[in-house]
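Project standup — Tuesday

K.O.: blocked on the structure for the chain from last sprint. Re-posting the sequence here as requested.
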Amino acid sequence: MLMELGQDAIDLGIVVADSEASLRFYRDLLGMDHEADTPMPIGGGGTMHRLRCGTTLIKLVSFDENPDASAPGGGIPGALGYRYFTIHAKNIEHVMETLEAAGVPVVIPTSEIRPGVTIGMVNDPDGNVVEFVRYG
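H.V.: unblocked you, prediction finished:
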C-alpha cells in the first residue's frame, strides 16, 4: 500500500443544512458519541460537530450560510460520486424499526440481500443515504 495509515478508520465530512436536525439523527437516534464542536476555519465560518461511530469520526459541518449547490437526489444510482456510507450494526432490525418509528425516510427496509447479509437504508435529514449492514 502506498499510504502508511495513521489510524484504522477514515473521517467522513458531511455538510448539513440544519445542525440540530442532523445532531438529532446522528447523535440522538443513532447514538454516536458527540466529542466536540469546533469552529469551521474555511467556507465563511460555521461549526464542525465531531461525532464518533466506533473509530470513525463523522464531521457534521454547518456553515453560517448554506451553500447554493446541493447533491443531486435519486439515491445511489442518481449521480456519480459519494452517494452513501455503511455502518455495521449487529442489531439492524432494532435500528431500522427505531428510525422508521421516528419518521426517518426508509430507502430500503431491512432485507436479506443474499444468505447471511442483511441491509437496511435510510435518508438522513439532508437526503444522504445511510446504509446499515449485518453479516452472518
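K.O.: great, moving the ticket to review. The two ends are 29 Å apart (CA to CA). Residues 6 and 47 are 25 Å apart (CA to CA).
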